[in-house]
């Protein structure tokens, strides 16, 4: 059964806006905010890395909870609450005057982000699959790309008029209407009870194991992706502020470059996956991600920042959508559960990145030196991606 284009677009846009709220206005806006919060005296660089780790720990917890609550009926109940609490945590961050308070709020923000980031795309993918449009699933991630552009503007434009915790206000004000409209469109999706039961109890499914010969390389590869991409996505603007002149465009503009490169990325990788096959497209994606981190390490500062921003922005969402879709191809009988497991693993390795960076900085290491960890992780991811089959044999 195919779905009419207007309704398909409405569902894709709703999912994109939900991800925009939790994953950019809730999560990644912290990246361009960090240099300002350090400048305002709210945080030190090490405290900023520690707080990022609390957010990624929350993301891991949220993804693990999504593994438990993976059935459609559970998603219908949990998703609106997670979305609402995520927006509320952004509001409370406008009042967070201490490192401890901000750490707790970023933890809560991460938990709800992890839940929504797993549940919303999985919910939509099952609806799309029912209507014969599963290949459109990657378009939901356009919300993240567009959200990075929005988050850059929400930080840069009012930067001279806001100070400290006040810098969270623009994100909250925009989150409220977007979250409300997005959920209003998703809550009525027609995924019937029989399909829901099939996802979790279908006795004809070959296995309910998460790890087998087909899926294990995909898990190991995705672990490398999580650790590899999170360093530039968390610290690239901070690195630019350290290595470049204060009046350099890249101090504030590096995040804008990431955002602009991210904007078309879901469409591009969605298309490449359809043309080349998701497994081959994923390998190409890892090569570009690896080059993005090596650019910071091996090229002059300004060129390295620019190339890293463009390549990491143009690839990280591609790895997400290709991996998620490839996972469902390998094990279509447990799509939402497998998706949650992959995001949980991604969340764990993301948590490790800022924590290891904080330890490195505490030992008087440089921020640039920490990026070697990301390069090694992406090489690991590429190696295992070479062993991922296009479909289960």
From TrEMBL:
Its main location: membrane. Gene3D superfamilies: MFS general substrate transporter like domains (1.20.1250.20). InterPro entries: MFS_4, MFS_dom, MFS_trans_sf, Sugar_transporter_CS. It comes from the Bacteria. Residues 12-393 form the Major facilitator superfamily (MFS) profile domain. The chain crosses the membrane at residues 12-31, 51-69, 140-162, 218-242, 248-268, 303-322, 343-363, 369-388. The keyword Membrane applies. Keywords: Membrane, Transmembrane, Transmembrane helix. It is found in: Membrane. The keyword Cell membrane does not apply. It is a multi-pass membrane protein. This is YbfB/YjiJ family MFS transporter. It comes from Denitrificimonas halotolerans.
């Amino acid at each position: 059964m195919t779905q009419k284009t207007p309704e398909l677009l409405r569902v894709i846009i709703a999912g994109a806006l939900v991800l925009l709220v939790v994953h950019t206005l809730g999560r990644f806006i912290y990246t361009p905010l960090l240099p300002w919060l350090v400048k305002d005296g709210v945080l030190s660089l090490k405290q900023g890395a520690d707080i990022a780790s609390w957010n990624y720990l929350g993301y891991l917890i949220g993804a693990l909870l999504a593994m438990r609550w993976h059935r459609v009926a559970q998603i219908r109940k949990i998703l609106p609450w997670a979305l609402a609490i995520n927006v509320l945590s952004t509001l409370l961050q406008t009042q967070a005057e201490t490192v401890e308070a901000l750490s707790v709020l970023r933890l809560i923000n991460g938990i709800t982000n992890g839940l929504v980031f797993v549940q919303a795309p999985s919910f939509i993918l099952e609806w799309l699959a029912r209507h014969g449009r599963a290949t459109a699933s990657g378009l939901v991630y356009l919300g993240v790309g567009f959200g990075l552009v929005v988050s850059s503007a929400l930080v840069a434009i009012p930067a001279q008029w806001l100070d400290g915790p006040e810098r969270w206000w623009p994100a909250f004000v925009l989150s409220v209407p977007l979250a409300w409209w997005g959920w209003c469109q998703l809550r009525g999706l027609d995924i019937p009870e029989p399909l829901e039961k099939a996802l979790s109890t279908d006795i004809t499914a070959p296995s309910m194991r998460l790890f087998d010969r087909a899926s294990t390389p995909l898990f190991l590869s995705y672990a490398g992706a999580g650790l590899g991409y999170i360093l530039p996505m968390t610290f690239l603007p901070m690195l630019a502020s350290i290595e470049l002149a204060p009046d350099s465009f890249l101090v504030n503009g590096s995040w804008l470059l990431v955002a602009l490169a991210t904007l078309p990325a879901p469409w591009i990788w969605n298309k490449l996956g359809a043309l080349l096959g998701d497994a081959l497209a994923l390998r190409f994606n890892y090569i570009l991600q690896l080059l993005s981190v090596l650019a910071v390490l091996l090229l002059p500062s300004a060129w390295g920042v620019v190339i890293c921003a463009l390549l990491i922005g143009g690839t990280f969402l591609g790895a997400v959508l290709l991996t998620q879709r490839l996972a469902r191809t390998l094990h279509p009988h447990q799509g939402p559960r497998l998706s949650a497991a992959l995001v949980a693993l991604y969340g764990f390795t993301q948590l490790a990145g800022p924590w290891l960076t904080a330890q490195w900085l505490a030992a008087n290491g440089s921020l640039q030196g920490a990026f070697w960890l990301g390069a090694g992780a992406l090489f690991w991811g590429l190696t295992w991606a070479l062993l991922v089959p296009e479909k289960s044999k």
